Amino acid sequence: QQKQITVIEKVTRETLKVIRREREEMDAKSNSRSEIETTYSNEDTINLLAAINHGKGLKTTVPVTAARQSPVPVAQQMHNIKAPSTIKTNIKAANTAHPYSR
Questions:
Q1: How does DSSP assign 22-90, residue by residue?
Q2: Per residue of the chain (102 residues), what is the pLDDT tens digit?
Q3: Is this model's pTM higher than 0.70 or not?
Q4: Are 16 and 22 spatial neighbours (Cβ–Cβ below 8 Å)?
Q5: How many CA atoms lie within 13 A of 52 on its CB side?
Q6: How many Å apart are CA 47 and CA 55, to the nearest integer?
Q7: How does DSSP classify residue 9?
């Protein structure tokens, strides 16, 4: 029984050493981080939030309206657009060469 107690005390001491060493390393890392130059600016963050939430600092632009070039409505113009014949030929060729016939 005394031998078991001795072994447990030894394991406990070694564990405490590891914990203390890790704690010291973590403290050293956290102390060195405070010396690193900051990569952000509180003022920039505040300006960004003001621009997003309230539109402050944004330039106002006048919407540009495009002049119609043709009296035909745009929807009808889009309907009249045809694909070039080479594209049609390629589409037909792709449909006939399908490896999995249905």
A1: HHHHHHHHHHHHTTSPP---HHHHHHHHHHHHH-TTPPP-PPPPPPPS-SS-HHHHHHH----HHHHHH
A2: 899 999 999 999 999 999 999 999 998 888 776 666 667 788 989 988 988 888 887 777 776 665 555 555 555 555 555 655 555 555 555 555 556 655
A3: no
A4: no
A5: 6
A6: 10
A7: H
